[in-house]
Amino acid sequence: MGIVCEIICWWPWKDRVSSCHRKELAESDPKYAKWFLDDLMVRTWLINSMQSTISVGYLFTNNAHLIWESLRKVYSQQIYAKIMEKTRVFQFFVGLNPDFEYARVHLLDMTPFPTLEEAHAYCLFYQSRQSPMPPISGIP
Predict the structure, then answer these.
(1) What mean pLDDT, rounded, does the chain reach?
(2) Of residues 128 and 8, which shows the higher confidence score?
(3) Which among 81, 84, 114, 132 could bridge 118 via Cys, Cβ 3.0 to 4.6 Å?
(4) Signed CA dihedral, 97, 110, 117, 128: sign only
(5) Alpha-carbon gap, residue 54 to 45, rounded angstroms
(6) Would you say 102 and 118 are in contact if contact means Cβ atoms under 8 Å apart?
(7) Percentage, residues of the chain above pLDDT 70
(8) pLDDT tens digits, residue range 88-114?
(9) Which DSSP string do the residues of 15-63 spell out, in sequence order?
């Protein structure tokens, strides 16, 4: 018994809606033949809609759901946003004065990786701790 995934494929010539299953059905399942043909068609659509340099990595994938999930993970906007955030942090580190080497090493070792705002705040904190204390007036 397969779990219906979020991909719904409309096949106008069959006048019906067909769904992909997350797991392959057992070959002994009476619905296996239909599932296999539906899944094969969806895999074909997915592969043919990709650039050849991308599709070559998915040619031998077992089912459409695995292709879809892999593509979702690889090309997700969330992943792109995380990469861009890390890039901004690294650019910030490159622009830091050598006096901040300790802060840079500490931030690079942090888990999870700090955001740009966290890195900036830590550098401000580090700078305030490194600057000499101002003299207190009235004390000799």
Answers:
(1) 82
(2) 128
(3) 114
(4) negative
(5) 14
(6) no
(7) 79
(8) 999 999 999 999 999 999 999 999 999
(9) TEEEEEESSPPPTTSTTHHHHHHHHHHHHHHHHHTS-HHHHGGGTT-S-
Name the 3-class secondary structure at 5. Answer: strand
Query: Most confidently modeled of 12-21, 33-42, 77-86, 115-124?
Result: 115-124
Give the separation between CA 18 and CA 49, rounded to whole angstroms: 19
Q: Give the integer Cα–Cα distance in Å for 103 and 123.
A: 6
Under 8 Å between Cβ of 24 and 17: no
Count CA atoms closer than 13 A to 52's CA, side-chain side: 0
Cis preceding linkage at 132, omega within 30: no
Q: Is pTM, for the whole model, over 0.70?
A: no
Encoding tokens for residue 122? 């830590």
